[in-house]
Every structure is written in structure tokens, then in C-alpha cells.
Design a protein that fits this description.
This protein is of the alpha+beta class. The protein has five helices and two strands, in the order ααααββα. It comes from Paenibacillus pseudetheri.
Length: 93
């Protein structure tokens, strides 16, 4: 496998290894939410939501948009599409 492809894939995978982050992505897949909205849905504090969203955003799985005083997070569907391509390239080698 091309080292650049392996690096891209492996640097993102740890962000998907946590159950809370996966539940968060499932909610965000349906539409943008802010930390205040996500906290009660996940049963965790806003600070914990922020910490998890930071990891997802750094890995490229979420993107954010400021609306007034709030940051709304949504899924970066382009990132998921690129992961599928990377997996296919890996499997076809």
C-alpha cells in the first residue's frame, strides 16, 4: 500500500474506535447539531461532547459552522467517501 494512503487511513481510524464518537456521528449524519443539543442526546456533559468533537474534527470526520454564539457540527461525508476509496484501493492490491 502506498505509504501516503496508509498514513491517511491509519491517522483517522482511532477517531472511530470510540462508541460515544460513533453514536455522535450517527446523530450528526442526520443533520447539524451544537454541543448543547448533543449533550442530552448522548447523556454526557457539553465539555465531554466538545472533547469528542475535537477528535472527530481533527480526523476530518466532522466540520463546523458558526451560527451566532454556537458552533454547529455536521458529518464530512466527503471524508467517508474517501475512506471507502482508500479501503477499495487497499483490497485491490
Amino acid at each position: 500500500m502506498d505509504p501516503a494512503l496508509r498514513s491517511s487511513k491509519s491517522s483517522r481510524c482511532p477517531a472511530l474506535s470510540d462508541d460515544t464518537r460513533m453514536r455522535m456521528l450517527k446523530i450528526l449524519w442526520k443533520g447539524p447539531h451544537c454541543t448543547k443539543q448533543l449533550a442530552p442526546l448522548l447523556g454526557i456533559s457539553e465539555a465531554a461532547v466538545s472533547k469528542q468533537l475535537k477528535q472527530l474534527t481533527e480526523a476530518g470526520f466532522t466540520k463546523l459552522e458558526r451560527k451566532g454564539n454556537y458552533l454547529f457540527y455536521s458529518v464530512s461525508k466527503e471524508t467517508f467517501d474517501s475512506l471507502i476509496v482508500l479501503q477499495r484501493q487497499y483490497l485491490e492490491q
